[in-house]
Amino acid sequence: MSDWTTQGIGTGHDGLAPYAVHAAGSRGRLVPEPDSRTRTPFQRDRDRIVHSTAFRRLKHKTQVFVAYEGDHYRTRLTHTIEVSQIARAFARALRLDEDLTEAIALVHDFGHTPFGHAGERALDRRLQAFGGFDHNAQSLRIVTALERRYAEFDGLNLTFETLEGLVKHNGPLTGPHAKAGHDVPPQIAAFDRRFPLALDRFASLEAQAAAISDDIAYNTHDLDDGLRAGLLSLEDLGQLDLAGDILREVRARHPGLDAVRTGHEIMRRHITRMVEDVIATTLARLAEEAVGSVEDVRAATGTIVDFSPRMRAQVAQTRDFLFRRVYRNPMVFGTMERAERVVEELFDRFCERPTLLPDGWSEAASGLPPERLARHVGDYLSGMTDSFALAEHRRLFDDTADLR
């Protein structure tokens, strides 16, 4: 038995609820490793994620606005940190394993391309004949194959619980509770054959907490970035049931408060209301369904960590508003269309001339059949930061788009 269970060093699981995942009961790793003397398996996962190359690259990957449009807009890294903070709050309130929750939150965006969803759309088009591109599947590919830091295995060799949280944080991928019309990405299906992740069952409450924290973070902070970019005004927020009610509350309590502080007050209360709603809803659901173990969670007929129906409607309204006013704004949309062309042109050029790939990537591309070459180039491009993708495009082309 390992030191952290016998001595209580860094256990982090005293006082956990019976429906939480307990580190001592982890299903282990694809490649067995000796236990750490000072860390639980989930603390070890979190540390490996934070020290990975993929984590550092998030600093220069687009969330909504390309990073160099302004120093204060969210990047994938700042978004990830915000998601992690909210997720840990849920774990603490619901008595879940905080380290597992944090690990899943920190790794959830590893597979995102440069330029956010624009890059993902471009790669998905180019890889349609070879299984397409899915950022969630790419996250799994990164942590199981593409990160090469350790002598004994490729990837980060994360635990079953972290991997299932990464793959299934939005629900089962197969079976009666899977989303209709969504096939299992081939990369996930292939890994599942090596290391089964129970794709037909729900993931842990820790994974569900990370997933809903993502919704809370981007619904709030994309409003904030929209205000900062001048695409939205405080009066625009008055159209929304949630943000509008908070706006009126702030103005009644702090008459004459300047616009910047008013915006900050709205955003922090926006997060608080959603967090408190989720905690209350989840505790009620746990009691109603008599959830007494993590197996009860996995065998449930629906997501347990969730918004109330009223809050879910308000979140959907906010998301629709963001699509209309921010994501599809001509300024943002035009920039993303140009970014898609950058990614597509890089993909085509590297597939035509794999020798243009950097050392290591070029040698590995030699002699690959078209399907494997396309995936190899997709792996290379998906790992790029925004700035590096533009630099590579300038190296290979004479007319790189201005994304400002």
UniProtKB/TrEMBL annotation:
It holds the Pfam family HD. This is Deoxyguanosinetriphosphate triphosphohydrolase-like protein. Belongs to the dGTPase family. Type 2 subfamily. PANTHER family: DEOXYGUANOSINETRIPHOSPHATE TRIPHOSPHOHYDROLASE-LIKE PROTEIN (PTHR11373:SF43), DEOXYNUCLEOSIDE TRIPHOSPHATE TRIPHOSPHOHYDROLASE (PTHR11373). GO terms for biological process: dGTP catabolic process. Residues 76-219 form the HD domain. NCBIfam families: dGTP_triPase (TIGR01353), PRK01286.1-1 (NF002326), PRK01286.1-3 (NF002328). One of its GO terms (molecular function) is dGTPase activity. InterPro entries: dGTPase, dGTPase-like, dNTPase_2, HD/PDEase_dom, HD_domain, PHydrolase_assoc_dom. Keywords: Hydrolase. It comes from the Bacteria. Gene3D superfamilies: Hypothetical protein af1432. It comes from Aureimonas flava.
